[in-house]
Amino acid sequence: MRKNLVIVFAMVMALFCGMTINALAADKIISAQISQATTAIDKNGNEYVRFIVPEERSLQGVKYTQGVPVMIFGESVAKAKTFKVGDSFRAIVSTKEYKGNLSYRLIAFIDS
Description:
Blueprint: H1 2-24, E1 28-33, E2 36-41, E3 47-59, E4 62-72, H2 77-80, E5 88-98, E6 101-110
Parallel strand pairs: 4-6
Antiparallel strand pairs: 1-5, 2-3, 3-4, 5-6
């Protein structure tokens, strides 16, 4: 009986930790200058745009710049296609990390 209770408790804690991690991945606002812009077609035949934007980082006191992709899908593609390399933009993005690499998915442009 005690063994079953410990297993149930461990499952509840694992579920709670999973929900907490997802809650920490909040949306944020970025202001960036485009260093690279690409338009392509996804596997469903829909057009998307990918901007690469520089982001300042620091590791053990060493500062460096890393290019981070901003993926743009859906209705925002038309507006994204009006931007070119060197243009600046502000946007609300969601963050995603895959195998240690950060990327953003654009939610909405912010007109300034």
